[in-house]
Every structure is written in structure tokens, then in C-alpha cells.
Design brief:
The structure holds two protein chains of two kinds.
Chain A: E1 2-10, E2 13-24, E3 29-33, H1 38-41, H2 43-53, E4 62-66, H3 80-90, E5 102-104, E6 107-108, E7 114-115, H4 120-130, E8 134-138, H5 142-145, E9 153-156, H6 159-167, H7 169-186, H8 207-219, E10 223-226, H9 233-238, H10 240-243, H11 249-262, E11 277-278, H12 286-290, H13 300-303, E12 308-311, H14 319-324, H15 326-331, E13 333-337, E14 342-346, E15 350-355, H16 374-384, H17 387-390, E16 394-397, H18 415-436, H19 446-452, H20 457-468, H21 474-491, H22 498-506
Parallel strand pairs in A: 3-4, 5-8, 8-9, 10-15, 10-16, 11-12, 12-15
Antiparallel strand pairs in A: 1-2, 2-4, 6-7, 13-14
Helix pairs in contact in A: 2-3, 6-7, 8-18, 18-21, 20-22, 21-22
Chain B: H1 8-22, H2 26-32, H3 37-42, H4 45-49, H5 55-67, H6 70-79, E1 83-86, E2 105-109, H7 112-120, E3 123-127, H8 134-149, E4 153-156, H9 162-172, E5 177-180, H10 194-202, E6 205-208, H11 220-231, E7 234-237, H12 245-255, E8 259-262, H13 270-280, E9 284-285, H14 289-301, H15 337-345, E10 351-352, H16 353-360, H17 364-376, E11 380-384, E12 387-390
Helix pairs in contact in B: 8-9, 8-14, 11-12, 15-16, 15-17, 16-17
The chains are: A alpha/beta, B alpha/beta.
Chain lengths: 510, 392
């Protein structure tokens, strides 16, 4: 009997699993036990062919493979390589004690090659925690695994290389050096999730909307853009990821973990360094938006973790899908509960929603009247009312562009300039919060919150007048105060001034 | 008097109202000629033909009349908590007798006593398009508020847009308001106005000439407009396209000799062209809400005589100046320079923050802060996200 370590994905994290193989006389055949999924069960055929192609034919005997713990479901093709190694050791190609403390993952091809798999970062983390001496994995996945301290990743291209690496320590070292050379060649290519985000200075005019983007980026506020078709809502939204500060290493690992799990076998070339931007179409299902499935997989809101989730044509989304976004937007994570376990997918994202003022787009237009029927309008607004919009802090109109605004009269601020301001505001906020942490009153009472956020007396007067005038309700009061604080952070002001409150009022939702 | 009287007047009115809803409206014209409902309801073929209706029309009328189940209608009225005011009964609004086709009766949702109270005082009809511009909505609010504050009941059609806003503003100002529906009386139409329906019901009441359970058709809404015209002492058209239902109401009002007021609009805004046409035809233009209320009282008191103010009579204080612009020139002592700049830039238009910043030279942040201050002071209103206009 021989055994080694493999990894089962649970949500975005991995758990170590033992692979035990036993060969005994009997009718030739292979049985896999321990809750293997469909892809794991099919491993037997791939391994049999792959081993034969590598000049290590499997014995014509009874082979039993067990995957303890037996109550944890195992999914995906990543079990091919560990199962193959365990069987080869059990049938005498390897000494079983050489597999002690070895971890492996990878898909075996019929010609004996090893193909990349998804979720490598999480597996490498699990391997490092479990204290394996080295981790065998497909060469294309090496970049991800190397980001984890502790695990010693060895990239292999085929089953024969893997067997030799287990046997021979010197060969392992050579493979390691080959991996470093290979990564060095790849690092000359840019690392990212897609084409570079376009620049803010490409957009002429729309200063109010740009300002709202800046505020959303500085305070991580969710934003609603409303305006007629063709006004540039989508163009604006696409520029938000570039305004956010670059990912810290910790954030980058979080994002990479999700993308690696959801990547569907696509190998990432190292850590994701850019903030993700996800724009699901409005026909997206609930499960695709927040995650789900029999073995839970992350949805769009998790793929947009630490980045931007853009919902164009917000009222066209199904009510079910929109309702399901409430909890992730509030808690910054998605909890998916299954019979056997509950998965937590991180989902700290900035939401940008865009909508027309009405189905035809001209409601509230100063000169044109809207041609929508009353029923269509009521239906449209019905979609919006409710808890999702309560989570949105900012709303800004994107007016149709006048033709003279398209002429470049003034120099527009670039993404880099605005990002510098946003980073400044975030730094200032951290410093302010650290300094006021000891002296500020705790609790959610309005007076305590106002003192904690350093609301100036004139600002307080304006805010309270707005409540008295019926412009703000209770929820609107708290959201406006939060936005005003972000505006003050952007100018580096300790106090929330009257002008901040006034501008926040103009940006309120509703 | 119970919700449904058992007397012959009520029986005839109810029967004829149901027949009229089914399409036999010709006979309503005979009510205007002075024939009581009982004659029409009880009359045989010979008497009916004597009214000048053709043989076919009478036969159809008689066969439909036989199909009306008054008992069922009465129980429906009771079940929905309505009151029926038949033609000829004391509670029936006298103004409706002026119509060429007076309704055979009115179904009332709400308190008959309150309705009687509202009908005893001055009333104004405020109507307009269902797809208004922000300007139209603001003017409707200002007019309804001004009338409500002077104790004038606001009559309108509960529709979306101008109508709904007129009811809401009258209620918000503590005034009384009456809605006239072109649909069944027991249910709000449009359904989105369910809450407003309940509030109007608690005020002057909701009226309809159609029986409970009646399914509205395209003709019922313009047909209802003659009641709107008749029930107001004057008709205000706030906004309406060149073939809007609001213009039909104005035409009915002219036929009845009511004064018509129209809110002047822009030449290039389709929703305001109808009003411009009315003004061209001689309707009173609305300059300010205050002046409109004064003109309303003058014109309704002055026995239909045309009375326009001379130029000298239009005092400076009455001059058209939006409420939001407190001074024409120069600064008030407590006013900030930015607020003044923004208020001036807002004159006569709905403006986004960007445009304001461009017009005033302020930064978008300062401009939006100034808008918020004006809004808190009640001098400006938000017409949309990041979009402001002066309060009228």
C-alpha cells in the first residue's frame, strides 16, 4: 500500500486529502472510493493510458484507491497525478516510503503529460500548512504556487518526470532550476486579467460623474449612474478600477485565490495585480451572480472581490438576482450553505449600477418628455425600490452630452492624477481613524457618530436642516454623513465642513 | 339617506348609469333637455320614440334595459362602501346639469358629507399630461398648494404626472381635493396611485359615473373629462401635448363658459405646445401662482366678463419672479455669493451640476453644495440626480 497527499477544494480554500492505493490479486480493475466526483472517477481511465504511455503499465490486478476523509466530496481533475503516483508506488515503480510527506496535484493526459488545473494557490497554501516536503504540480501552475511561502513547488511536465522527481533529489533540484528559468521568461509578459483599463482623460466633460467616481473610489461607496442612452455611463464605469489604489499583496493573494478556483483550468501567470472589473449581462442568473452550484463556485460578485462589479441596465436584472446581492454588499462576503458544509466566498466589491431614468430614457429631461406608458414606468421603478438601492450611497446624473462639450477645451484629469488623490484620501482616513480611535465616542447614536466623524457645527446645521426639510430620512442621513466624511478626507480636512455636507446632499440617492 | 336609496329616482338613475356605461349614452342628452330619469327608465317604446330616438336605438335600449339587474348593482355598491348620487337628488352637483350629457348618477367613494362641503365652496380643476417635465410638476405643485392655502378645492383626474401631483400637493398643504375617475369607482387607477386614492377618498372623495366592476375603455377617459371641466370653477392646464386629453378638458370648459388658464411653456417642448395653443386662443396665462389665485377669484366672481389686468395693475410685487430668486439684482445680507450665482444661473431652466459649474465658474463640488443649500432653504428643488431647478 502507498499513500500521499492531495487537495480538495472547498469554496476558495483547499483541504488536504490522503490518497491511498492498494494492489492485490484479483480480477483486473480499479475502484475509487471516498466520495469521488465524476471527474475524479474518470481519473482511472486517464491514469491507465497515461501510465502505459510513460512505459509504466499498471499491473493487471485489482487496484483499490481510497480518498480519506471519506465524507468530504472531491471534485475536479487535480486528483489524477496523486492517484497515479500512489498506484505506481503500490505496484512497485516507486518505494512507498519515498512518497511520505509528498503532495501532488495535476491532470494526467493520455500521453502521460501533466496538464494545469484550477485552484493551485489554495492547494499550495494547504500544502504549506500541512507541512509537505515538496509539492508536485503542473509546470504552467508554478507561478501561482511560488507565491506561497513554505511549500516547495516542483513543476513537472509529464508523469515520468514526476516519478523521477520523487525518486531522485538531484533531479528535483534540476527541475526547480528549470522552473525558475521558465518563470523568468514568462515574467517579461504583463500580468493581468485583461486589457489595460482605459484612461479617465478619454472622457470629455461629465465632471460631476467623474467627481462621483473619485468619491466612490476614495470611500468604497456604491454608486448609481443614471442618464439617457449614449451619455457615457458604461465608459465612466470602466474607468473606476483604475482609480482604486493598487492591490496590496494580501489583497492580491485573495483575488488570485478566487480567480484561480474559478479559472476553469486557465493558469494564471502569478498573482493578479490589477483590480478586477466584472460586468455581468442583465440576464445573469442568481447562482452566476453570487455563486452556487452543487459544489459551490464563486459568482460574479466574488470575482469582483477587491474590484468593481458593474451592473449596466440595473432595472433589467431579475428581481431575484438583485435581491441576492443585498447580503454580499452588506457583509463583504457570500455564504453558501450546503448539506455538508458552508462555503464563504469573499465579495468585498464596489458596486456601480447604471440605469436609464425610464425605459425610453427621457424622463426628467429638461426639454423632452418621456414616451413610456405609465405601467412600464411603474414596473421599471418597482424593480429599483427596495433593499438593494438602500445599499447604494451615491447617485449621479449623466446628462446627454452637448456637442460643444466634446471639444477638448480643458485638460481632463488623468486616471493617475485622480488615483493619487484617492490614495491620499485613503491614507488620510487611516491616519485620522488611528488618531481618533482612542478619544472618539463609540456607538451608533447620531451624536456619537457625528463626533467620531468630526462634523463641524455649520455642516451639522445644514444636515439637520435637510432632515427637517424632509429631504433626508434616517437612512439617508447616515449615508450622507458617510459620503461627506469621504469628501472631507479627499481634501485632507479633519472636520467635515458645510461644503462637504452640501456636496454629499447633491450626490444622495433618490 | 342610505348609501343606495330605494326610491324611484335612485332606481332610475342607477339603471341609466349602468346603461350609459354599456354605451347607451344618447339618452343622457335627454336628461339635459329636462326629462327626468324616471321617464326614461320607466318609459315604453312609444314614449321613448317621442324623444326623437330612432326605432333601432329604442329597441336596443329596451333590450339592454331588461338585462340590468338593479339588485345586484345595489349589493355591489354596498359591498364596496360606495354612495350613489342619482341625477335629480339633492346631493348631485348642480354644475353637472349644464352638461350636454349629464351623468345619470355619480358613484362616490368617500364621505358624502365631505363631498357636499367641498362642492359648496370654490373649486379649481388642475389637469395636465401624464408624462410631464420637471417644470410642469413643479408648477402643478405650486398651483395646487396656492389654491389649497386659499381654501379652494382642487379637482383632478388621479392620473400619473400632473394630476397626481396636483392632488398630492393640495393634500400636503392641508387642502381638500376631489378626484374624478374614468374607471370603476372602487379601485385606484392607475394602481400605483392606491395610496393617493385612499387619501383623496378621505378628503373630498373620489367620483365616477361608471358603476363598480366597470371595465374601462379608451373612450371613458376623454368622456370623464367633461365632468372635470364642469366641476371646477376654472380649469388650469399645466402641461399637455397638442392632442392631449387636458386640451379636451379645456375645450369642454370653454363650452361650459368656464375660464381656462394655461401655463406658458417653451416653443420647443412638445409637452407644452398645447398650453401655448390655449394661450394663443385666449386662455389666461399663468404668471405666478399667487396671481393665478387672484385671477381665479376675480374671473369667477365677475359673472363671466372678461377682465384682464392693465399693465399698471400688475404690481411689481406680482411680477413674475420665481420664488427661488429672492432678488433680481444685488445680494441679500445673509446670502452667500455662490448661492446667489447658482440661483441666477438656474433661472428659467433645469440644470445639471456640471452646467452650473461651467456657468458660474465654481467647482462642481461648490456648485452642488450651493444647490443643496438652496434646496434646504426651499428655493430650489432637485429635478433628478444632480439636476436642479428653482422652486416656483
Amino acid at each position: 500500500m502507498a499513500s500521499l497527499q492531495a487537495y480538495a477544494l472547498v469554496g476558495v480554500s483547499a483541504r488536504p486529502v490522503l490518497v491511498e492505493a492498494h494492489v492485490r490479486p484479483g480480477l483486473p480493475g480499479m475502484s475509487l472510493v471516498g466520495l469521488p466526483g465524476a471527474a475524479v472517477r474518470e481519473a482511472s481511465e486517464r491514469i491507465r493510458s497515461g501510465a502505459a504511455s510513460s512505459a509504466m503499465p499498471l499491473p493487471t490486478q485489482r487496484i483499490t484507491v481510497n480518498l480519506p476523509p471519506a465524507d468530504l466530496p472531491k471534485e475536479g481533475p487535480g486528483f489524477d497525478l496523486p492517484v497515479a503516483l500512489a498506484i505506481l508506488a503500490a505496484s512497485g515503480y516507486l518505494a512507498p516510503e519515498q512518497l511520505r510527506g509528498v503532495g501532488a496535484l495535476g491532470e494526467v493526459a493520455l500521453d502521460g503529460g501533466v496538464r494545469p488545473v484550477s485552484g493551485v494557490l489554495s492547494c499550495a497554501e494547504a500544502a504549506s500548512q500541512a507541512g509537505v516536503s515538496f509539492l508536485l504540480l503542473p509546470l504552467p501552475n508554478l507561478a501561482e504556487a511560488r507565491e506561497v511561502a513554505g511549500a516547495v513547488p516542483v513543476g513537472v511536465r509529464c508523469l515520468a518526470e514526476a516519478v523521477r522527481a520523487v525518486r531522485d533529489e538531484g533531479y528535483r533540484l534540476r527541475l526547480h532550476q528549470r522552473g525558475e528559468r521558465w518563470l523568468g521568461r514568462r515574467e517579461s509578459q504583463p500580468v493581468g486579467l485583461g486589457p489595460r483599463p482605459p484612461d479617465l482623460s478619454d472622457i470629455a466633460g461629465q465632471h460631476a460623474a467623474k467627481r462621483a467616481l473619485e468619491v466612490a473610489a476614495a470611500g468604497a461607496h456604491h454608486l448609481l449612474l443614471s442618464g439617457p442612452p449614449g451619455a457615457g455611463k458604461t465608459m465612466l464605469a470602466r474607468r473606476l478600477p483604475g482609480l482604486l489604489p493598487s492591490l496590496t499583496r494580501f489583497e492580491a493573494i485573495e483575488v488570485t485565490r478566487i480567480w484561480s478556483v474559478a479559472g476553469g483550468g486557465r493558469s494564471l501567470s502569478g498573482l493578479v495585480r490589477e483590480r478586477p472589473f466584472r460586468a455581468p449581462h442583465h440576464t445573469v442568473s442568481r447562482a452566476a451572480l453570487v455563486g452556487g452550484g452543487p459544489t459551490p463556485r464563486p459568482g460574479e460578485v466574488s470575482l469582483a472581490h477587491r474590484g468593481v462589479l458593474f451592473l449596466d441596465e440595473l432595472p433589467e436584472f431579475s428581481r431575484d438576482a438583485l435581491e441576492s446581492l443585498r447580503q454580499p454588499l452588506e457583509d463583504g462576503c457570500v455564504v453558501i450553505t450546503r448539506r455538508q458544509s458552508a462555503c464563504v466566498f469573499p465579495a468585498a466589491t464596489t458596486l456601480i449600477a447604471a440605469m436609464n431614468p425610464c425605459p425610453c430614457g427621457f424622463l426628467g429631461h429638461p426639454r423632452r418628455s418621456c414616451t413610456c406608458t405609465a405601467g412600464a414606468l411603474a414596473h421599471y421603478n418597482d424593480r429599483l425600490s427596495g433593499p438593494l438601492v438602500d445599499r447604494i450611497d451615491l447617485q449621479v446624473g449623466v446628462p446627454p452630452l452637448e456637442i460643444d462639450a466634446l471639444e477638448p477645451a480643458v485638460r481632463e484629469a488623468t486616471t493617475a492624477e485622480v488615483r493619487a488623490r484617492v490614495e491620499g484620501a485613503r491614507d488620510f482616513r487611516r491616519e485620522r481613524e488611528a488618531r481618533t480611535a482612542s478619544s472618539a465616542p463609540a456607538g451608533d447614536h447620531p451624536t456619537a457618530v457625528e463626533r467620531r466623524l468630526c462634523l463641524s457645527p455649520p455642516g451639522r446645521r445644514l444636515l439637520h436642516e435637510a432632515v427637517a426639510a424632509g429631504i433626508l430620512g434616517g437612512r439617508g442621513y447616515a449615508r450622507t454623513l458617510g459620503v461627506a466624511r469621504t469628501l472631507a478626507d479627499l481634501t485632507g480636512s479633519w472636520q467635515v465642513r458645510e461644503v462637504d455636507v452640501g456636496e454629499a446632499l447633491a450626490l444622495r440617492v433618490g | 339617506v342610505g348609501p343606495v336609496d330605494q326610491g324611484p329616482l335612485c332606481e332610475a338613475g342607477l339603471g341609466l348609469a349602468c346603461l350609459a356605461a354599456e354605451g347607451s349614452r344618447v339618452f343622457l342628452a335627454r336628461l339635459a333637455d329636462g326629462y327626468p330619469t324616471t321617464t326614461l327608465w320607466r318609459g315604453g317604446p312609444r314614449e321613448l320614440r317621442g324623444l326623437g330616438v330612432g326605432r333601432g336605438g329604442v329597441a336596443e335600449f329596451l333590450s339592454r334595459r331588461a338585462g340590468v339587474s338593479l339588485g345586484r348593482r345595489r349589493s355591489e355598491i354596498m359591498r364596496h362602501g360606495l354612495t350613489f348620487l342619482p341625477h335629480g337628488c339633492p346631493g348631485y352637483p348642480v354644475e353637472l346639469h349644464q352638461l350636454a350629457f349629464p351623468p345619470a348618477g355619480l358613484f362616490v367613494a368617500g364621505s358624502p358629507a365631505r363631498l357636499a362641503g367641498a362642492l359648496a365652496g370654490p373649486r379649481v380643476t388642475i389637469v395636465g399630461t401624464r408624462t410631464p417635465t420637471p417644470y410642469g410638476l413643479a408648477v402643478a405643485s405650486a398651483l395646487a398648494r396656492a389654491f389649497a392655502e386659499q381654501g379652494v378645492t382642487v379637482v383632478s383626474g388621479l392620473a400619473l404626472g400632473i394630476d397626481g401631483r396636483a392632488h398630492e400637493s393640495a393634500l400636503a398643504a392641508g387642502g381638500s381635493t376631489i378626484a374624478v375617475l374614468g374607471t370603476r369607482p372602487e379601485r385606484a387607477y392607475p394602481a400605483g396611485h392606491r395610496q393617493l386614492y385612499e387619501r383623496v377618498k378621505g378628503s373630498g372623495g373620489v367620483l365616477s359615473e361608471f358603476p363598480p366592476g366597470f371595465v374601462a375603455a379608451k373612450w371613458t377617459f376623454p368622456w370623464r373629462n367633461r365632468l372635470l371641466a364642469a366641476l371646477g370653477d376654472a380649469v388650469f392646464v399645466v402641461e399637455g401635448g397638442p392632442d392631449s386629453g387636458a386640451l379636451r378638458t379645456a375645450d369642454c370648459a370653454l363650452e361650459l363658459g368656464r375660464e381656462v388658464f394655461a401655463v406658458p411653456g417653451h416653443l420647443d417642448v412638445p409637452a407644452q405646445l398645447g398650453c401655448l395653443r390655449l394661450i394663443y386662443q385666449g386662455a389666461w396665462p399663468v404668471l405666478t401662482a399667487k396671481m393665478a389665485v387672484e385671477d381665479f377669484f376675480r374671473s369667477t366672481r365677475m359673472a363671466r366678463g372678461r377682465h384682464r389686468r392693465t399693465a399698471a395693475e400688475v404690481k411689481v410685487a406680482d411680477a413674475p419672479a420665481p420664488h427661488g430668486l429672492r432678488v433680481q439684482d444685488g445680494l441679500l445680507s445673509d446670502e452667500r455669493p455662490e448661492d446667489h450665482l447658482v440661483a441666477r444661473a438656474l433661472v428659467g431652466r433645469v440644470c445639471g451640476v456640471d452646467e452650473l459649474a461651467l456657468a458660474t465658474g465654481l467647482s462642481p463640488g461648490e456648485a452642488s453644495a450651493a444647490c443643496s443649500r438652496l434646496e434646504v432653504q426651499g428655493r430650489a428643488v432637485r429635478a433628478g440626480p444632480g439636476c436642479y431647478m428653482l422652486n416656483i
